[in-house]
Design the sequence.
């Protein structure tokens, strides 16, 4: 996880396009300038970044289901619950499931756990539209390669 | 149509916190009820679930943007309900 670059997903562990599910892993860095302010002397992973981590996870699922033809943009967060503190160095198990494949939008449910203990969860809505620029799609494909996006899963699904 | 309208009106009232008795068949969801595009996603989700359909929002938006249709054709509630009935019928055909 490179917080400062908004690269919050380390690796896609499992992707099932038939079941509409994804699982990723992400390790909170032990050091980051963000912890200097959040909070001085008591570093904690900011809750908004945990939510962003869930959104990125669910977003990769949506990209997979559209076979890299469309980009999900965060539109709404509902029923977000931040259940416990997350310390630097924590290994996160992030899962997401598509609840509804709408026309131009997607409704997902995502959750984070650490050591099988629930950390947070939320319902996340995306607007889903064609990539506004080809360069953006290329950048997403490069990121996909970096985090081990299983292209074979698209062929299997 | 009336039961479709009742279902849709109840969804709008609950989703957008709009008094149920102000929602009429001739109401325009955007211009009369003040529903914005994000709130309409919630309504579309609830309608999709309630009727087991997929409102073609992208197609409708494109047609309006291209000048091939007016928002009244899709977002006046009695017209919306007619389209929902059509989608339900097509699903069962």
Sequence:
């Amino acid at each position: 996880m490179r917080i400062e670059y908004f690269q919050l997903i380390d690796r896609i562990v499992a992707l099932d396009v038939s079941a509409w599910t994804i699982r990723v892993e992400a390790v909170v860095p032990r050091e980051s300038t963000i912890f200097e302010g959040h909070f001085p002397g008591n570093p904690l992973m900011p809750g908004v970044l945990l939510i962003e981590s869930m959104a990125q996870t669910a977003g990769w699922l949506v990209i997979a289901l559209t076979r890299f033809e469309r980009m999900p943009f965060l539109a709404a967060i509902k029923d977000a619950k931040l259940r416990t503190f997350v310390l630097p160095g924590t290994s996160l198990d992030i899962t997401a499931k598509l609840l509804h494949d709408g026309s131009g939008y997607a409704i997902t449910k995502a959750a984070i756990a650490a050591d099988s203990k629930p950390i947070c969860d939320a319902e996340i809505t995306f607007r889903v539209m064609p990539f506004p620029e080809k360069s953006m799609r290329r950048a997403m494909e490069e990121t996909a390669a970096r985090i081990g996006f299983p292209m074979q899963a698209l062929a299997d699904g | 149509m009336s039961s479709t309208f009742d279902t849709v009106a109840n969804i709008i009232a609950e989703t957008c916190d709009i008094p149920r008795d102000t929602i009429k068949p001739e109401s325009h969801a955007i211009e009369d009820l003040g529903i914005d595009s994000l709130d309409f996603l919630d309504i579309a989700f609830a309608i999709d679930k309630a009727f087991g359909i997929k409102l073609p929002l992208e197609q409708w938006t494109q047609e309006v943007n291209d000048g091939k249709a007016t928002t009244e054709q899709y977002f006046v509630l009695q017209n919306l309900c007619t389209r929902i009935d059509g989608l339900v019928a097509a699903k069962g055909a």
